[in-house]
Amino acid sequence: MASRAYGACVLCQRAVVVRMTCRGMSAAAHPQSQVDFLNGAPHRKHPGVTNLKTLRLPEELHRAAQSVIHSAEVSGLTDRARSLTNMLWSRKRAAEDSTLRKKAMSLEKVLWERAKERRGDLDEQVLEARIKKKVLSELKRTTYRWTPIKYDEQLGVVYMAARLAGGYAAVRRALNEIKKRDPSFAPHSLLDFGSGLGTAVWASHFCWGDSLKEMVCVDSSGPMNTLAERLLKGDNEKAEPHIKQVYFRQFLPVSPKVQFDVVVGAFSLSELSSKKERDETLFTLWRKTSSYLVLVENGTKEGHQILMEARDILLTKQEKTVHDTRAASVFAPCPHELMCPKLARLSAPPCNFNQLYHPLPLPGQPDRQTEKFSYLILTRSEPAEADGEGLDWARLIAPVLRRPRHVHCHMCCPDGQLQHVVVTARKHSRDVYRCARSSDWGDQLPIIQQEEADVQSDSE
Known about the structure:
Blueprint (H helix, E strand, L loop, with lengths): L1 H28 L4 H4 L21 H14 L4 H14 L6 H21 L6 H19 L10 H29 L7 E5 L5 H10 L5 E5 L3 H11 L13 E4 L10 E7 L8 H13 L1 E10 L2 H16 L12 E4 L20 E5 L11 E11 L3 H4 L7 E3 L4 E3 L2 E7 L5 E6 L1 H4 L1 H9 L5 E2 L9 E3 L3
Parallel strand pairs: 1-2, 1-4, 2-3, 4-5
Antiparallel strand pairs: 5-8, 6-8, 7-8, 9-11, 9-13, 10-11, 11-12, 12-14
Helix pairs in contact: 3-7, 4-7, 5-6, 7-8
């Protein structure tokens, strides 16, 4: 009996040695080891994680918003907030005059060809008048009727109830990307274009606190600026603002040499009336950027396309007069500066991301909601300066599907391609597998080296 027990013990020891040897061989076979990129951090907190837990508004902002809602006494606030949210989500850009002209000429040509086949005895002038009338009627029917939104005091409160928490969550998530990947960055100044309720001020204050010494909010709506200032003062005109050195303007600073460490444009480009105005505004915002330009839009195809147009303009075009010669480079979320692969696929969903948040408490609303948004961060620094770890990492562009012993990851890669990769510990190393399993939509993952046969098309 003693000899059997001894033999069993020897077998156990051998099994342990074999497992340890295999682990050592596996680590040597995979270049992406824990030593390479984890820097001692646990897998769930690897350098590519940028996701945030369910966000709440800062307590001071939450209390001030509730006080404003209570004092305003807007009838049917919940229903009006829901309707405004739906309208803003489905909102499109104004149709360009050149696009309308091309559409009208094409339609007119088709109608003339049809008319020639069955013209009969109709006078040509009468026929021309009829065709023009049909063209105008068809354009009115099929063209999105864009009109600027004019916020008065009451509509401002409705907008606050609908969008304060969601807008804060989106901007905070975007700014967290900078804070996580460039921890030494300590901005002293901020410019918020289309500032609305001042959510960028609150989000940036949470990220960098007293480092910020000057924050300029620019919004063309006087009532919206007044409401944002009320929120800063806790809905008490005599109180000191919770965040100091915040200045409200209705127009951008005139001097082209005045720059800010961080410039934010959240849900504002889509509210400009034409592509020309968007382009001019983009160049103005970039001129005023000394470090980071942060743009956020709805996570719709429209919002994504607006951001990709902005990306291409600032990367490829240059103004005649340049005050800061440092070129633009993409910081996030794109891991490359090639054409967006999603735009190349007509049926592909837009590149967007999710952030959970707690909304303002309104009757009939759930305690948690999801903000779906698209964002773009450009920097004047070289990518290697601001982002040594995640420079060549892919971006997760869909929820991670966790299965027994494998994980499905849909990624946008540094080579400009979309990939659907099935990550396993055997193929990609234990560390990469555990990092993938701990990651989620919007995070970054190290490049996964594997044979071409293991990579599936992202459309599958």
